[in-house]
Amino acid sequence: MMNILVVEDEKKVAALIQQGLREAGYQVETAESPTLAREAMRTQRFDLMILDVMLPDQSGMDFAKELRIGGHRGFILMLTALSTTKDKIQGLDAGADDYLSKPFEFEELLARVRALFRRKIDDKAQLKNGELIMDLIGRWVTREGIRIDLTTKEFTLLELFLRNVDRVLDRNAIARQVWGTDFDPDSNVIDVYVNHLRKKLDVPFPRKILKTVVGQGYVLSKLE
Q1: Last residue of a domain, one of 118, 134, 161
Q2: Within this chain, do residues 114 and 10 fall inside the same structural domain, yes or no?
Q3: What is the rounded CA–CA span in Å between residue 23 and residue 195?
Q4: HSE value, Cβ hemisphere, 13 Å, CA-based, for 49
Q5: Among 71, 86, 118, which residue terminates a domain?
Q6: What pLDDT is recorded for position 94?
Q7: pLDDT > 90: percent of the chain
Q8: Domain that holds residue 102
Q9: Which of the two residues, 71 and 17, has the higher pLDDT score?
Q10: Residues with Cβ within 8 Å of residue 176, at least 6 apart in sequence
Q11: Beta-bridge mates of residue 48
Q12: 32: three-class secondary structure by DSSP
């Protein structure tokens, strides 16, 4: 699951980006300043940072330079109202991988995020468990060559299981990774989505691999 940090001090903009990217299947956190971004980066690894240039305690340009000097290898996509060629060159020279001018259409932002992740060379483009294959770029899933159509949330849930084959995942771990930190632990949403996924993943095939471990959680069994 791709992890994204949005560093943006305009709360409405940050919230809209976070909601849209989560609906597209990404794990997304927000920070209002470089100081808060550093705190988030101490405990989490982010594959992409969406970084506004105009920030309260340090410019996005300077923060990007600091990150690159410090060895940060994740992608950086800069957002700014400054849109001249000179501004874009400065942003790229500061360490950004891409540059998007405000105002922007969310679909363009999403397309640029997908394009950056296609360039990611230290992560697998596909996750496999025997004949079960998930393509992270094309966002498709097949089992024994048969296409399995999943919703965005089902896709994210299956990705989590595929990254943890034969490992029991409890409800808290699933909630944190798929629904975020604001998830209601008393909700039955996880059980509902697991059942939906099981119907698509297991019912058409003789071997059942998505199993319930009573009192512990769920596990995706390894396919030889």
Answers
A1: 118
A2: yes
A3: 20
A4: 30
A5: 118
A6: 85
A7: 52
A8: 3-118
A9: 17
A10: 183
A11: 4, 75
A12: coil
